Amino acid sequence: MFAEVRDQIKAIVFEDKHIQILQTSRTQQAVLYKALTKKGRIGDTVLLNTTASELNLGTGGYDFVKSVGENAHVTPCLNRDDGHILKLRYTPMQHQVLSVESQESPYHSMFQTAFSLEKKPVLVGELHSMIPILYAGSKVLDKGATVCIIIDDQAALPLTLSEHIRALEGEETFVTITVGQAFGGTYEAITIQTALQFAHEHLKADIIMITVGPGVVGTGSYYGFTGMSLANWSNNVAALGGVPVWIPRLSFADKRKRHRGISHHTLTPLIEAVLTKVILPLPLLNGDRLEMIENQLSKLQKAKVSPEIKWIEEQEVQQKTEQALRMLGKDIKTMGRGYQEDPAFFWAVVAALWTSLNLGRE
User: Fold this and answer.
1) Above 80 in pLDDT, residue 75?
2) What is the DSSP letter of 301?
3) Is the dihedral of CA 339, 342, 343, 349 positive or negative?
4) pLDDT tens-digit profile of 248-292?
5) How far apart are CA 173 and CA 265, in angstroms?
6) Beta-ladder partners of 212
């Protein structure tokens, strides 16, 4: 299915240097990426890709502007980067970026040799909503810590779609690197390996996390979901001499059985695809919740390499999480649920961050 319509811009709801969010005559708002097309003005005609909204998608349920103007059939490339690396390659939306590795980059020389993460903990987590929780937690657990988020291309490719990233973009201790076909980060990179090298050797980030943009994919099948990428990230971190620390996807409010307790999006890649030792932090809950988690952890006996479980006391992680959310000053939702509806999800992020910081001090 592919759907598109022509419409007219009625209002500009939001605008920054990267993106416009437009109100057209349709119910859905439309996203315009300035790297891919010229900016719109009220009254302009726009050609919209309406596929996602026609399918009633959640995270991706916007319309997207393909072109602006009555006779605009070809999208002009307005990206002004000086690099020669193309992202969205071999599509009508391909555009040039200056990747940190490329010959034009001032950082090119640092990528001539192999490197080591030198036992540095690196966090891996499936959901984009983990990012603001992790950043807020860092301000509580280590106020001056710098945070680098590496965004792989397994979900939304334009990072500028993310409201979480737009809210954090001005923070001096927050940096992003978009990898593969993902684009729009503070820095661009070609591979996870070079992103890790840049984060460790040049940025000297205290906290590094690998995740994706908004809109992970799940199909209710054994392997068909975005979270399988965690195993690849984890294996790469270990191969480079780092310590993979998993952020478990934890919930006791999700109505889907496969996501209750520790999600199968965490358990399946740990069992089936992780080839090296990893650390799995968990809040130490009680009662039926703990029993469910322990039963799920027993499945890890089938893993090729069993993870090391690190328990963090519930009361301690709850206190730090609530302090972090107060400091953040905005409501964070994951899968449509906030902290009051699903606190365990938030605790799991802070427990993993806490573990990572403690390992980094050893």
Assistant:
1) no
2) G
3) negative
4) 999 999 888 899 999 999 999 999 999 999 999 999 999 999 999
5) 30
6) 152
The Cα–Cα gap between 338 and 336 comes to: 7
Spell 283-299 as b/e; 16+ CB within 10 A means b.
bbbeeebbeebeebbee
Q: What pTM did the predictor assign?
A: 0.89
Region 73-97: what's the mean pLDDT?
66
Closest listed residue to residue 309, CA positions, set 287, 294, 325: 294
Percent of the chain with pLDDT over 90: 74
Neighbouring C-beta atoms of residue 83, cutoff 10 Å:
18
Whether 345 and 132 have beta carbons less than 8 Å apart is answered as: no
Q: Which residues pair with 19 in a beta bridge?
A: 33
Q: Are 267 and 299 in contact, with CB atoms under 8 Å apart?
A: yes
Residue 94: is it exposed, middle or buried by C-beta count within 10 angstroms (0-12/13-18/19+)? middle
| Length of the chain in terms of residues written | 362
Q: In what order do the strands lie in the sheet with 308-313?
A: 187-189, 174-179, 147-152, 207-212, 121-124, 243-246, 279-284, 308-313
> Which region among 67-71, 84-88, 237-241 has the lowest average model confidence (pLDDT)?
67-71
Smallest Cα–Cα separation from 127: which of 278, 294, 251? 251
Contact yes or no for 193/115 (Cβ under 8 A): no
- The span from the CA of 208 to the CA of 245, in Å, is 10
Q: Return the structure tokens found at 135.
A: 């950043």
Query: Which segment of 25-39, 203-217, 236-250 scores lowest on mean pLDDT?
Result: 25-39
* Helix intervals (H) in the chain: 51-54, 130-141, 163-168, 192-197, 229-239, 264-272, 287-297, 314-328, 343-361
